[in-house]
Amino acid sequence: MLEIFDYEFMRLAFLGGTVIAILAPTIGIFLVPRRYALIGDGLGHIAFGGIGLALFLKFDPTAMALGTSVLAALGIERLRAAGRLSGDVAIALFLSGGLALGLIFARLARRSTDQLWTYLFGSILTLKMEDILLMIPVALLVIATVFLLRRELLYSTLDEETARASGIAVNKINLLFVLLTAVTIVLSMSIVGLLLISALVVLPVAAALQRARSVRQAYLLALFASLLSVYLGLIGAYYLNTPPGPTIVLSALGIFGALSLWRRAS
User: Fold this and answer.
1) Mind listing the pLDDT tens digit for each residue in 98-123?
2) Could you tell me the domains of the chain?
């Protein structure tokens, strides 16, 4: 099995996958209890809309994806906080609009389906060292921010009204958190793709909650499940000749199923 590491593209895939596998549950551990599991899908679709626009205007796709995702994240949180729309409805609006715009602009730009496929389902096997050198500091910045604000994030997640009464700037914390989520989504699109990143953010956390008895335990277990999903997915994709992104997601789903069965059996 070790011959898989004889190839540089696989070594880079494991390295890049490790970065995202650590980052995804760091965000997901706060998203799932907030019932914001679909925000990954919503921002992923919006990022795709930004990519389509970038292809049409001949701009940098990653920069445009990040910009549109950040604006969408702010819009979703503003609508939710103002009470105009529930979080899931706001996400659904941005989700459907983003995908539609992405497909229309990509068609107008006359780009091939293969190019769109890499954005939608990931291209982890084409990662270069410069891609990973860009990923690492951004991921570390997101993780460090979450770590420094972990108590405020936790209180805001579990009981927003009590957190506000305790003097926590809940609105600012929520805005910052959705911005960190947007960065995570765009950073992860090369690993599992914009349509699948939500699964890597949500499934390891959902799996961990089947067995964990504390937030700390849930995070550590989610981290383990996320890393295992990426490693099993890459190994499976290599030997089965399947697309890496979907294989990683199926691995995460399998781990969730196994822990769910274990919970029922115990």
Assistant:
1) 778 877 887 787 766 566 677 777 77
2) 2-13+22-195 (1.10.3470.10)
